[in-house]
Amino acid sequence: MRIALLSDIHANLPAFEAVLEDLEKQKPDAVYCLGDLVGYNVWPNQVIGLIRKHGIATIAGNHDLKVSKILPSEGECSKEQSSEYAYKLVGSKERDYLLTLPRHLKLEFQLNDDHLNMLLVHGSPRSINEYLLEELPKQYMLDLVKEFNADILCFGHSHKPYHRIINSGKDGSNHYHHLINTGSVGKPKDGDSRACYVMLTISQSATVTSPDGILELQQ
Question: Which of 118, 135, 181, 186 could form a disulfide with 10 if both were Cys (CB 3.0 to 4.6 A apart)?
Answer without folding.
Answer: 186
